[in-house]
Design brief:
This protein has seven helices and 17 strands. The chain is of the alpha+beta class. One of its GO terms (cellular component) is DNA polymerase III complex.
Length: 281
């Protein structure tokens, strides 16, 4: 394998997998990134066996092939690399050589390669029907529900976000989260009906959704889909697949009082300022 790629493009792709490859698992290969040549692009793939990311980036391919190297080490090298274009090539299939594409910059690294055949591809997305959502809206919902944190507890309703389309109203998408003490419910209304085939709600992994946030940073539109027990988010040439959690989410309708007898309307900025002052004590 041998190719040249623009540094900013490569750094952007590899940065999005750091959360996935830095998680502790029982399999050392999950700390690595799989790089493959795919036509006129390269594929950057990583998985922790629960969440997988794949992005395709334009590159000048000289020789086809693939290589798997430790993700964190690769990212540390390329983020401060002293050249705008980086050349990567495998040496006898055992080492990945990283150098500048020009003959002026004198910088060269060699990283030991892992066995690329050890990688597990979570699910195929070919022929999968996708449904388009506003990326900023989805990002806002995830950020607000992740306030409850990501606990070490393995109970699905604590380490997951509940996503549903309320029965009888296909214009609303709803997301909920709880830590056992707090419950957050967020509704967003769309002008058009959401024809997402969801008969009941699903529980999304909080860890997986923290990775999806990186996909949504640029705004625009994002496509989502479901296959078997997986949630898929796709934006441009980048895709994240994360396993749905099995279990039951609490009946939030029993928790939220209805109807509410007393309502207090207050300016958000003033209330936030008040709470910050109270937290000093």
């Amino acid at each position: 394998m041998k190719f040249v790629i623009e540094k900013t493009v490569f750094v952007k792709g590899v940065s999005k997998i750091q959360g996935i490859t830095n998680r502790k698992t029982d399999f050392p290969i999950t700390a690595s990134v799989l790089i493959r040549t795919m036509g006129m692009n390269i594929s950057v793939y990583a998985t922790d066996l629960e969440t997988g990311f794949e992005g395709f980036y334009s590159a000048d391919i000289a020789e086809e092939g693939q290589a798997a190297v430790v993700s964190k080490k690769l990212f540390e090298i390329i983020k401060d690399f002293p050249s705008d274009y980086i050349k990567l090539e495998t040496v006898e299939g055992k080492m990945l050589k990283i150098s500048a594409s020009d003959n002026v910059t004198k910088a060269e690294y060699h990283i030991l390669c892992a066995d690329p055949d050890e990688f597990t591809i979570l699910t195929a997305i070919e022929d999968l029907p996708f449904y388009e959502l506003d990326a900023q809206t989805l990002k806002d919902m995830i950020e607000k529900t992740l306030i409850t944190g990501i606990p070490d507890d393995d109970r699905a309703h604590l380490c997951g976000l509940y996503l549903e389309l309320p029965e009888g109203d296909k214009n609303i998408i709803r997301m909920l989260s709880t830590d056992g003490n707090r419950l957050i419910k967020i509704d967003r209304t769309y002008e058009v009906k959401l024809d997402i085939p969801m008969k009941e709600g699903v529980i999304l992994s909080k860890k997986g959704m923290s990775d999806v946030l990186k996909l949504l940073e640029a705004g625009g539109q994002v496509e989502i889909g479901f296959r078997e027990n997986n949630f898929i988010a796709k934006k441009d040439e980048e895709t994240i697949v994360t396993r749905l959690l099995e279990g039951d989410f609490p009946d939030y309708k029993e928790v939220i009082p209805k109807p509410v007898d007393t309502r207090l309307k207050i300016t958000k900025k003033a209330f936030l300022s008040l709470m910050k002052r109270m937290l000093i004590l």
